[in-house]
Amino acid sequence: MLKGHLDMIVLAALASGPAHGYGVIQEIRQRSGNAFDLPEGTIYPALHRLEKAGYLASHWSTAESGRKRRVYKMTRRGERALSDHRALWQRFADAIGGLFGEKARAPARSHR
Amino acid sequence: MLKGHLDMIVLAALASGPAHGYGVIQEIRQRSGNAFDLPEGTIYPALHRLEKAGYLASHWSTAESGRKRRVYKMTRRGERALSDHRALWQRFADAIGGLFGEKARAPARSHR
DNA sequence: GATCATTACCTCGCTATACTAGGCATAATG
DNA sequence: CATTATGCCTAGTATAGCGAGGTAATGATC
Fold first, then answer.
1. Which residue is nearest to nucleotide C12 (CA to C1')?
2. Is residue A110's pLDDT more than 70?
3. Where are the alpha helices (DSSP H) in chain B?
4. What is the predicted pLDDT for the residue at A103?
5. What CA–CA distance (Å, rounded) separates A31 from A4?
6. Looking at the predicted structure, is the pLDDT value of residue A1 above 50?
7. Would the CB atoms of A35 and B5 count as touching at under 8 Å?
8. CA angle B34, B93, B76 (to 5 degrees)
9. Among B50, B97, B102, B105, CA closest to B72
């Protein structure tokens, strides 16, 4: 269902600061109010795609726990892409709203 | 970009009354404020899909102009599907809103 | 110290689906 | 009679999200 919106979602999750892949998943789950519980098979390829596109930059880091993580950070281009996506989303959501908003002339009434 | 939302869009276009394929396209274009200008190769298969799923019913009709048209009309199931989709959309849109809404703690400020 | 859950990364392949590019037919227009 | 607009259709392609699998280290349980 989120085909075409994933990149925007991932970028949005990283807008508040760098994070590693696993963390991005949790960030998205939290901020979406549990609506988006994205599997790794979705996130990791997306992160790679975004990095290749120049929207993200990554570097390896070691947590205090000793675990290796790849930490992603938005680039300037990424920020611009996000705000573009955000504008697109706005138009998209408005269009959908127009489609089943304040329309449906002879709708309710008979709610058998 | 509207992957996964097309069915909902088509159903929404037919919520205000029956229409034929070509008309659905124009209806969608209008109501979306020109945001969605969907090609026939998108709409016709979608209509067939929706009819096969039992969300739409169609019958051939002849306009005054003499042209044959296939007119689609929502079924009871279609109406239910639409309202379900609508609810899903609501949650989806809210989730997106949560992702780049009232967040981004250290964002703007420096807008060099 | 063996077993298990959690964290953390990765990739291959499936599948669903929107769209491109074609084709067909009729009515109106010049 | 050629062109444009209306009106329908389908085959094939490309994309992308996701399931299923694999690897490895840490911490806890027994």
1. A41
2. no
3. 6-14, 21-31, 40-52, 76-100
4. 44
5. 19
6. yes
7. no
8. 75
9. B50
Residue A42 has pLDDT above 70, yes or no: yes
User: CA–CA separation, A37 vs A34, rounded Å?
Assistant: 6
Whether B24 and chain A come into contact, CB under 8 Å, resolves to no
B34-42 long-range contacts (CB < 8 A, ≥24 apart) are B35/A91, B35/A92, B35/A94, B35/A95, B35/A98, B36/A95, B36/A99, B36/B2, B36/B9, B38/B6, B42/B6
- Does any CB of chain B come closer than 8 Å to the CB of residue A112? no
pLDDT for position B102: 52
Q: Give pTM, 2 decimals.
A: 0.86
Burial grade of A18 (CB within 10 A; 0-12, 13-18, 19 or more): middle
On average, the pLDDT of chain A sits at 88
Residue-wise pLDDT tens digits, B7-62: 999 999 999 999 999 999 999 999 999 899 999 999 999 999 999 999 999 999 99
Helix (H, G, I), strand (E, B) or coil at B74: strand
- Does the C-beta of B67 come within 7 A of strand D? yes
Determine the residue type at B98: G
Residue A42: enclosing H or E segment and its boundaries? helix A40-52
- B1-35 as b/e, with b when 16 or more CB fall inside 10 Å? ebeebbbbbbbbbbbbebbbbebbbebbeebbeeb
What letter represents residue B92's amino acid? F
Each residue's pLDDT tens digit, A54-77: 999 999 999 888 889 999 999 999
| Token pair in block for residue A60 | 């390896």
